């Protein structure tokens, strides 16, 4: 059932507010992620059409929200991108094989695994914060962990958690961190990087 109401409160910094339903009743919480059109900044007194849902805490909130004059775009269920997940897993397996063959030290293997796990956890926390309207993790921090070696964990988190997987600008920078990190890794296993590898052993 679709309802209509007026936006009576909006916190631009935390990206959430409240709707007063036209038919009366309690004010309804709405987060920016509930809007179909996220490019438009909500303003007070905007007329909004929405559906009612429950968050993880069982509280009622708005979802599938549209501004007056807009049509609700049907959500298309997207399967996780197998390419980025396979690439991440294959990369970690390749590092382990190179360790067995003696090309890379165990410290480097553990560093990639540890950073990937930490990065996945950071993504999970950031998605939880986004859903609750809490203070978000800066995108620069997410990219920093990716370029440091946590990009496999970031890729898996983006696709399995469906977080940061649609924003084109973010995805572009993310793939740049992947290219840079893989390039640095390729240098490490080259003859030129052999001396540095010896220092890690």
UniProtKB/TrEMBL annotation:
Where's the CSD domain? Answer: 2-67
Name by which UniProt lists this protein = DNA-binding protein
What the entry lists under Pfam families is as follows: CSD, DUF1294
Cellular component terms (Gene Ontology): cytosol
Question: Which superkingdom, per the lineage?
Answer: Bacteria
Give me the segments passing through the membrane.
83-104, 110-126, 172-190
The UniProt keywords, alphabetically, are: DNA-binding, Membrane, Phosphoprotein, Transmembrane, Transmembrane helix
């Amino acid at each position: 059932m679709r309802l209509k109401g007026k936006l009576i409160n909006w916190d631009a910094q935390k990206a959430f507010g409240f709707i007063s339903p036209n038919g009366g009743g309690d004010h309804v919480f709405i987060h920016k992620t509930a809007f179909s059109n996220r490019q438009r900044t909500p303003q007070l007194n905007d007329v909004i059409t929405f559906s009612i849902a429950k968050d993880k805490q069982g509280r009622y909130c708005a979802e599938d929200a549209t501004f007056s004059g807009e049509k609700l775009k049907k959500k298309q269920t997207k399967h996780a991108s197998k390419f980025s997940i396979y690439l991440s897993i294959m990369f970690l397996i390749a590092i382990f094989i190179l360790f067995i063959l003696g090309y890379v030290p165990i410290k480097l293997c553990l560093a990639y695994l540890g950073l990937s796990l930490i990065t996945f956890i950071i993504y999970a926390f950031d998605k939880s914060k986004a859903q609750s309207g809490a203070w978000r993790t800066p995108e620069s921090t997410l990219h920093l962990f990716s370029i440091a070696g946590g990009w496999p964990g970031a890729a898996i988190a983006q696709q399995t958690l469906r977080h940061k997987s649609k924003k084109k600008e973010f995805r572009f920078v993310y793939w740049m961190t992947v290219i840079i990190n893989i390039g640095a890794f390729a240098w490490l296993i080259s003859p030129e990087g052999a001396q540095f590898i010896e220092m890690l052993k």
